[in-house]
Design goal:
Rossmann fold; two-stranded parallel ribbon; 92 residues; 52% helix; 4 helices
């Protein structure tokens, strides 16, 4: 998968990546079933595995990933992103 990603992105990688995380059950409950696309209609186990995969990537690339609590309000998540971007800019 890593080599496929590098090929698809021409080896480019962002210096910072935000992962807005929340349990699959919560994420799926926020989606109106009639508006669900093909991926959103997948099973709960599928979504749990996708979440697990993203968390594993974030753990392996700790210097680049910032995991945000997706159970917070939109305004709180926005504030967390701004804080982390400012910290990143100051550091670099």
């Amino acid at each position: 998968m890593d080599s496929l990603t590098k090929y698809a992105t021409f080896g480019l990688q962002p210096e910072i990546t935000f992962l807005v995380d929340l349990p699959a059950e919560v994420g799926l409950s926020r989606i109106k079933q009639q508006d669900a696309d093909r991926l959103e209609q997948e099973s709960l186990d599928f979504h749990r595995n996708v979440r697990k995969g993203f968390l594993e990537i974030a753990k392996a690339e700790k210097d680049r990933y910032i995991i945000l609590d997706g159970s917070k309000s939109i305004d709180e998540i926005h504030e967390d992103i701004i804080k982390n971007i400012n910290k990143f800019i100051t550091k670099n």
